[in-house]
């Protein structure tokens, strides 16, 4: 079942295909009276948009957002906010090969298996272009949680990780990789460039940290803050793993080693550590909310891969065209957007029940 | 906001506290005409129930399930199925300490921060006893997806992992650890026993595999099969990480290494590998659906931990009482149940849209 | 699709059949800290319960409610509140006739058409006994909207209406008919008694009025306060019509005649009339919220009616047993409960978006 | 809380204001493979659009719909269908009066009470222009239920009703009133014209009938077919009452008079009557599904009405501009659309649970 709405009270619904005329999002449930114009959204779209350097796809989209409803005299009215981004660079390439044979690792086969046919142009609805709509919605969500500061970054590319001790949030936007460690960023230049030239692709680990989340957001038991984040992040194209706080490292730890001791503080408790990633029992503790995501390497590569065609015959496919050698890089602003969207929803849900 | 319902069309709502009179679940949207009696549910509850060996909590609960509605003459009627399990061993221990000071890593502080007060007896609603209700619901879900076979198992305890080459599904229930590798199971006896005697606790990695899922279940974009699984699994107590297929290993891989090549087969395509965990673009491929979960070590340990009391003063706490030294072990049947519940929902959703 | 949950953030899920062991409701999303015990719920169940006088069914149920979760030390905890009512008087009558042939106007045929078979004992899930669970949930909802005072009453039975000029809210509970006009109540004694003796049944019009609802509850466009009320009321057994404010009378009026002129007031505007029933644009105006419901006469009558049996053969059926000659009477406390449940949900929704 | 999505599995989300650049709808959950182009939608928009004769508002909108997503090579893909209609005739009139004082009966005061301010141009989000989006979505819904034939019509204007014996479905579109009785249509010409000239307005009763609905659609207990219809219809601007089948007339009837006797038939039972409006126990019987709606007279009249301004001071208001003298007329295609939308959702829900 197609399900393109996310959220419980602060909800957004995205639509659009890679090669259709436009894509967009309807944001519903937004509080009224927030100052909002295209200028509040555009910078986040610009940070995500393709064609900005040689490490990302060379598709060139202006990704200009237009507010079609829900704002009056510069403020949100409380009614649905419709945002639209026109597609301008749907290159009229030849799709006959991809129309006929399935690209392994893409949604080609599964869409056909589910729906009987598919829009094969540029991945159709399964294209990561849809994430532009999420980023636009995320910009609205940020206005709902002004107390929160969200930082996304790339922790590792192709297994080459940053040095956590060298983490510098101020350096993240100084390089094309959203990398908080300048030394790693320098290494990644050749790493990613080599992959690009070879027509290969690389996986990545993306981290995200939200500071300023007060204690008490979240919910037992099926709208837990961590469960909502897991769903949000796993819904991003290419994400195959989600960790909250220490994640899988906690599975190798002991109760003593994993304890986040509490001490008296002037504004709520002070925590001696944050193994939990700022969430206990599904509810925020007041510490930074942290998560890590695994992005797989894109399946769009120049090396021929065995596959089958629509009739089930053996075939071989090479994915030509303009692709990101490491989708995790441009996935980072999408991760930030999903964090904002989940937190905005949880803030309103908390207010609903607890005043 | 308290949210105790999971699912979109096959939905279940759980209720109950650790030390209340009972706990239960209402399963709604179940197809009519399925043969169902308590005997279909009880074995799954028995597999989860406490007090069965020295590696789990010594709380003794019969965990006898009673069907209160939705079944007539031995078959589901299509109306809500109410299942209830009475609590019988809520030992009348002294909770004055835990009522006063927060156990770090538990939901004590966050429930207070959210709701202003909490039922502190045995963790109240945040207790893993709630998962008995999920296991009961999961038994109903299994009847909805008889084509699917679900196998949960423990892959690692405290960092000591099984040998994948030694994986023997038939051995899983031959040891108290849900361990598919007899050699690892032998090692874990002393590992877990030592932790228990020391009043410590251990994390674990739990795997789950669903065979028989046809291609086509799932959905773009926010009810993706992997996103639904991520939410389901992350909602289980103590889970801090979720991987689909290769998960974080994919993040260190290349597009070539991560490709699941397809070949012609008599019943749908044959895949050369399953890095994707049986899901592409959020929709099942027909391969086994696989995931891995990180369970943190429980925070209930005998080593004193710094904390604060309800008034914000410094305190120290030791969590006495009957606890699982490794909650991942008894979490395994819960993981199986959540897998069944997600698949049942996705099967019905697919049928709704695609007939 | 079976759907037994109502509400968006203040949600309740009912379960149970007429002749099963029990019925109940899980209330989720209730704010924490509200004083709640069985004594807060029981009076509303008592007002609805059968067998209290000769104008209602002679089935005798204690309808004793038990709180199974969600309350600790006398206050709601914010977690799901499970309420259960055991069935005690499921008379072991012979259901062979009703099992075989369909009672026209009942859900017998439609349940079979939908589900393939049905629990035929006393109507199973389609029995009005389910409304006991709603009344219990409604008692909780009232605690969420203490600023609101709800008054349900019967306006007409079998076409014999009250005199609006004689409306006396204080008289409603002085007669067995929830009638605010003592003269009408006196007439109805013989009217209803005659119907009962004749094995006939009568329809009724039930009104409901909520005072104290502040301006601003409700929502554009599909969770309008009037749309939510319409769904809530139409979901009650036997209801076939819903009016807000003047309802169908407005359809015969002019814009001038239907205007609710506004004048300055010390606490918000004063309205010269309330044709709108306290709702404009789906949002409360601050005036009393008023609605009227049409209850059909129950189809359970002693006059033989032509029907068919399960095999499609011609048959004739007489509905023996204990039935309400006018289901609208006992429907009145259910209407009050649904009003409270909708308002509680809308209050929390309003708070979520507008703080 | 703003809630602009309707439906459970076949869902649509509308957006847009009367005087914004455009309005639209996203339809999600639509089955794949249905032939769909703008030409399938446009006729329904044309039937609703303003300015077609002197009995409706003189605002002139082309109401040209554009499909922005979800259709590929002329067929629905199963992904969200985005439909957009540009506003072209937002006359730049002076709104200073309506910005300052509240029009009684409109949503002016309630929007301000809820949101703190409002888009006052042409009613903003509360304008009936939003219903164009519903009509567009309804055209898609009709494709999902091709077995169903839906007929909407006006039964009465300003209290002047059709003669049921003269009902002629073929005559409905032969007059500007959706009137199935030519004699009544002739009377209404002067009736409506006089109201228009006087700057007055008239209420109306609209009926709707869906033939071809099979037995079994609908659900106990809160997604009953009649409850869903009630919510859908009551969410339409100006609707104040909903009846299913006999509605309020049933409330004045007896069980004998209200019985829909059943007789054997070659294709399911034959019913001797349809007092129930084709729904029993919330589930369709296989008979035509019928309902009636009360539309109030619009509050936009030239007679001055007492009101207050935003500061709470006494004022007087006259609603100038282009308005429908009887909104029920153009409401009729909206009623048809909502019927289609509810039935499409219920068909898919039924298939989800019952195969």
What would you say this structure looks like, in words?
4 copies of one chain form a homotetramer. Chain A is an alpha+beta fold and 355 residues long. Chain A has one domain (5-354): Chorismate synthase AroC (Chorismate synthase, AroC fold). The first copy, chain A, is 26% helix and 21% strand. Chain A contains 7 helices and 18 strands. Chain A has helices spanning 38-48, 96-100, 108-115, 131-144, 182-197, 225-234, 327-354; strands spanning 5-6, 11-16, 22-28, 65-67, 71-72, 75-76, 81-86, 149-157, 160-161, 204-211, 239-244, 262-263, 270-271, 279-280, 283-284, 289-295, 305-308, 314-317. Chain A has a 5-stranded antiparallel sheet, with helices on one face. The longest helix of chain A has 28 residues, at 327-354. At the C-D interface, strand 1, helix 3, helix 6, strand 11 and strand 12 of C face strand 1, helix 3, helix 6, strand 11 and strand 12 of D.
């Amino acid at each position: 079942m197609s399900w393109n709405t996310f959220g419980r009270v602060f909800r957004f619904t995205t639509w659009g295909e890679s090669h259709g005329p436009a894509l967009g999002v309807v944001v519903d449930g937004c509080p009224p009276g927030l100052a909002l114009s295209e200028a509040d959204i555009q910078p986040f779209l610009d940070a995500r948009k393709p064609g900005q350097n040689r490490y990302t796809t060379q598709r060139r989209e202006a990704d200009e957002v237009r507010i079609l409803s829900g704002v009056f005299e510069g403020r949100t009215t409380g009614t649905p906010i419709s945002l639209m981004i026109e597609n301008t660079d749907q290159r009229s390439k030849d799709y006959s090969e991809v129309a006929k044979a399935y690209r392994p690792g893409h949604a080609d086969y599964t869409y056909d298996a589910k729906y009987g046919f598919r829009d094969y142009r540029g991945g159709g609805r399964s294209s990561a272009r849809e994430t532009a709509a999420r980023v636009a919605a995320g910009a609205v969500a940020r206005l709902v949680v002004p107390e929160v500061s969200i930082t996304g970054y790339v922790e590792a590319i192709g297994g080459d990780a940053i040095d956590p001790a060298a983490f510098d949030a101020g350096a993240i936007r100084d390089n094309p990789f959203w990398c908080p460690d300048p030394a790693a960023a320098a290494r990644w230049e050749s790493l990613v460039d080599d992959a690009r030239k070879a027509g290969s692709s690389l996986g990545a680990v993306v981290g995200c940290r939200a500071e300023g989340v007060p204690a008490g957001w979240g919910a037992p038991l099926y709208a837990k803050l961590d469960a909502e984040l897991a769903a949000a992040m796993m819904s991003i194209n290419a994400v195959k793993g989600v960790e909250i706080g220490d994640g899988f490292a906690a599975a190798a730890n002991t109760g003593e080693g994993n304890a986040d001791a509490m001490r008296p503080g002037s504004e709520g408790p002070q925590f001696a550590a944050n193994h939990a990633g700022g969430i206990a029992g599904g509810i925020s503790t007041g510490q930074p909310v942290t998560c890590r995501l695994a992005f797989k390497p894109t399946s769009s590569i120049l090396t021929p891969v065995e596959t089958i065609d629509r009739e089930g015959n053996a075939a071989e496919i090479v994915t030509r065209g303009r692709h990101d050698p490491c989708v995790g890089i441009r996935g980072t602003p999408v991760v930030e957007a999903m964090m904002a969207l989940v937190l905005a929803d949880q803030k309103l849900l908390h207010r609903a029940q607890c005043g």
